[in-house]
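Lab channel / #folding
Pinned by the channel admin:
"Please post every new chain as: sequence first, then the structure tokens as a reply. Keep commentary short and put observations after the output so the thread stays searchable."

First post following the new format, from NK:
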Amino acid sequence: MLMKYSSVRPDGTYEKPVNAKLGYGTMMYVRAGIVVGSADVLARACTIAIRYSAVRRQFPEQEGGPEVPVLNYQVQQLRLFSQLASAYAFHSVGNRMKQIYLRSVKEIGQGDLSGLSEVHAISSGLKSMTTSLTADGIEECRKCCGGHGFSQLSGLPHLYASYVPACTYEGDNVIMLLQTAQYLVKCAALVARGKKVEGFFVHHLNGDVISSSSPLSSSFRGKKDFFLCPVAQEDLMAARSRGLIQQIAPKVLQSGANKNIHMAEMVRMASAHCSYFMVNAFNTFVKDLPESNIKRVLRRLSDLFALVMIEKELPDFLELGLIHPHEVSQLRLSIYDLLAQIRPDAVALVDSWNFPDFLLRSSLGRYDGDCYEHLYNTVQGRGLNQDHINSFLVQNVSRLILNPRSRL
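Reply from TO:
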């Protein structure tokens, strides 16, 4: 039966597992693999788009001057470097999920099943978030390649078509977020009754996220580099998660069986919670690295990942009073500064994944940068272009032209 915790006796009697939730361990393993896979796929899309953007030139900065690589344009950097940061972030999130899975297996072996619900909630939400963001990211990379990105020779249409089913298999992404939301509502109910919830995924529900020592409540808040502080980023994400749970969970509990009227808000609540988990995982990964130039480069990516997520969900932060309107311009300036700092290392960051050309299957994302020559040679080698005049046209189309038939 390929199951560890249930069996069928010789007489045909089925023995159920001790706890029906024991299957969560297997689901956690599969979903951890999906998260790691999302990092790999998005990394391939980023490699193709960033390499091509470094080669493709369009418009001179000065009249009569040389054309500029499109990767030098800020808007192109914002679109691509956001995806680049996400690819690195998903790698660290996948590693964190694997650690949680191994811890869960160890606890199950010791007879401790208390953490299974949290494992299920984490794996459900992160599977949904990473696959949705990856599918959208591949499409964004394709659009950043212009008309050539639409060609099969770019490798991006095939990559998107083969990956997008991940948003559905192993659980529809919206349903996965609703499962995470159900767990968060239960935790909120426990906290409301004065009980303490255990586990990293929900530890911030036990008390005030913004303590007196938090950068959010100190004089550092007015500094230029406030949004580049990892602790401030995590405190903002945690406070947003906690604030939405405190707003939405009581409504869900009061609605009883009629949760349908709050489902959209439940998805938003779960999404905010998973976003906090991802920012924390990436920041922790970078923080634990030894001091080096590599760490400084990855710190810029982790900062960009966090700030782009905050900027995309500004209404929540403004509504909860976590960010003041006059601070929004500084948030965006911090993002733009990071783009300029990442630009010199962008090509090296995608080259570091070491994807061979045969795996990318892309004329645009070639390691040697000879994308246009490879495009031309590839097209010339196709059967349709072997003859100066295509034989199909000679045999069929010309016959219709030279021997027209009456339509009557």
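NK: The two ends are 68 Å apart (CA to CA).
TO: also worth noting, The chain is about 60% helix and 5% strand.
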